[in-house]
Fold this protein.
Amino acid sequence: MSENSPPEIATRVARAYWDEHGFCGHRVYADLLGRTSTSGLIVLALTGKRLSDEECAFVDEIFVAVTFADPRIWPLKAARIVGAYGRFVPAFAAGYLANDIDGVGIGPGVCTAVSRQLIELRQSVHDRVDDADAVDEALRRQWTPESRWPGFGVAFRAEDERALALRRCVLARGRNTGMYWRLFESMVPIVRRERKLEPNICSPLAAILLDMGFDPGTVGALAMISFIGTFLANAKEGAAEPAACLRELPVGSVEYVGRPARESPRAMARRSGG
Amino acid sequence: MLDAIESPSRIKATVIEPGEEPRLHGYAVESDLAHNYKSSEILYLALSGELPATPDISAAFEVTLVFLSCVGANEGPTHAALLARLCNAPSRALLEVAAVGLAERAHFVVEGLGALLQWLSAAEGPPPQQYCTADPGAERTVARLRARLPSSFAVPALAHPLSRPAAIAAVLHACGLRRPDQLEAVWTLAAIGPTFAEGLAAKPFGIREYPMNLPAFRYEVAP
């Protein structure tokens, strides 16, 4: 861009007109109003894709299946703590920021990394997603001692009840025929046998979203948004009922394990008259 | 489920020991640090775990903080803070927007300096070409940076025609701050005051005085 040419950004998101607005290629009032659910609007916003009614209903089920909103869950607690100063929006933002993971971490943000791993695995096995031997061999090559697989491993319990609930929804809707879902189903007994790990919610969620045609970045964003209820509830209550003890715990709540007490060089010099 | 989990009863802290007189990396904040050290040295201590080992390091670090302090409204963080003010966001929201914007900008800059940091640690050969510039303005800035450093503080990398961010990173590296997360913190924290101030100076609801089409957005309907 030269100094003299005015900058311009191409957008497919929206344009404001007078009596009608454009949004992701559709007219808000003529095309979307009365014909689009909240989940449909969210997916349209994130992907530019307009879902069918059945797909919207399935997305609704995803949003409910992943709901796990105990305030003690760490990013939700971050939302609560910031909310303890009385404002909903910073609380909500803090919770989501605490969950904004690049790669491996705690929370739905890891779905981007999980979906990339599934794609790479699928490229190794091609169409042999139901072939246990092929999947086993590809996993052995891809899942090295150095690599982390955030889609497997369930904290504090034997199975991830959200993954089980989502699986029931997938089977009930006959959505278990997609390549990535089938690959995921092939992986589960192998990982269980070889690694003693069960899938957490991120694996089936990434698989089903990949089968719906979304790329890894979109999978991650959708996964993040699918948890919106958990963050909204905690941010709202945290701000509406600000807890003084979250703003400040007693000093005794902290176990200091850092450097022991010491005197600075300048303090020592002053003391010795230097 | 979570009730069944065993967990410690206290939060582990490694940097700040809370109490009537807090300690930072072991040093008493009120009776020692406040009496003997400047705020820039406290930041250095917080990020590195140690007080600056020499007065030259302290002086050079302070110079970089000043050089990093001003991020104009043409840059993302300040622009975003200014827009928040146009929306009549309260001052704390301006700080939040500024902090998020500055942290993202810092990461963007420091990530781009990755190869430079490797070169600085290897300390041999010329710097990677992408960090050199022949831009006269950048050369003048680096000359001013060089002139502000203590004469006894050696930054061999400044003998090369480095860009502004590369030169600043080289000085921080010479001060002992070498990790990307340390550089990101310095890049962010140095600018938060002036960025907030610029945002705060904008006129609430002043949307008619804001250049809506800078830059312009061209709406492309999806096929």
